[in-house]
Write a structure and sequence with these properties.
The protein contains one helix and seven strands, in the order H-E-E-E-E-E-E-E. The protein is mainly beta and 135 residues long.
C-alpha cells in the first residue's frame, strides 16, 4: 500500500511539473503572425518604390504591442535595391502599412520583394516573398 501511494505521489508531482513547464498550445486556427504584399509597387519620381503590406502579429509576453515590419525590393542587373522599416502594432489585429523602399533607383517592371514582421520578443513573426510589378 505504501509503495502504491508513493508511486501515485510521484506521478502527481511529475504531472504538476509538466503543467508548469509546458506552455499551453495555441489553437490551430489562430496564427501567430501573417504578412502579405498587396501587389502594389508604385514607382515614385525620385526612383523609390512604395509598397503596401497587410500584417498581423500578436503582442509579446513582456513588451506589449510594439513590433517591427520591414521590406526589401531588388530589381534588374546590376540590381537596384531598396529597403525600409516601420514600427508595427502587434495586437492580434490586421493592419496595413505603406513603406517607401529606397535608395533604388527602380524602373518599371518586375522585382523580387521580401518582408518580415515580428513582435518585441520575436514570439510572433512572419515573412513573405513575392514578385511585384513596379508600375
Amino acid at each position: 500500500m505504501k509503495r502504491a501511494l508513493s508511486r501515485l505521489a510521484a506521478a502527481a508531482a511529475a504531472s504538476m511539473v509538466l503543467l508548469v513547464v509546458v506552455p499551453a498550445a495555441a489553437p490551430a486556427s489562430t496564427p501567430s503572425a501573417s504578412l502579405h504584399f498587396t501587389n502594389q509597387a508604385a514607382l515614385q519620381e525620385d526612383g523609390t518604390v512604395l509598397v503596401s503590406l497587410i500584417y498581423l502579429c500578436n503582442p509579446s509576453a513582456f513588451g506589449g504591442p510594439a513590433g517591427s515590419v520591414a521590406a526589401r525590393l531588388e530589381q534588374g542587373e546590376p540590381p537596384a535595391y531598396g529597403e525600409a522599416f516601420a514600427l508595427a502594432e502587434c495586437n492580434g489585429k490586421k493592419h496595413t502599412v505603406t513603406l517607401d523602399l529606397a535608395p533604388g533607383p527602380f524602373s518599371r517592371g518586375p522585382g523580387t520583394a521580401q518582408a518580415v514582421v515580428f513582435n518585441g520578443d520575436g514570439s510572433s513573426a512572419a515573412e513573405t516573398r513575392a514578385i511585384l510589378r513596379v508600375k
